[in-house]
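re the bet — no i am not wrong, look at it urself. input seq straight from the record:
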Amino acid sequence: MDQQTGFAVLSGIGMLMFSIGAFGVLDAWHKRHPQLKRVDWLISLYAFGVLLTVVGMVLYGRWWIAAPFALMLLPADRAIRMRLELRQRRAHLRTLKGEEK
C-alpha cells in the first residue's frame, strides 16, 4: 500500500469515526442521557477517530495539518470529565438516600 492510499484509508475511517462519535460528546456537553453507557462509547469513538486521523496525516507528512486536529481531543476530555462528575453526584445522592445499587 502506498503512502497516499494509506493516508486516504486512515484519515477517511478516522473522520467517519469522529463524526459519529461527536454525538456522544454533544450528549455529554448538554448533560443528556447520563445513565446510558453508549455515550461513553461514542466519546471513545470520537477520540479514537481523531487519533486515527492525526496518525494518517503524520504518516503522510502533513504534521502541520495534524497539529490542529490533535486539539480536537480537548472536547472529548472535557466530556469525559463531565460524565464522571455526574456519575459521582448520582452515587453520592444514592448514598445519602440510603439506596443500594
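see?? The longest helix spans residues 3-29. told u. also Residues 3-97 form one domain. so pay up
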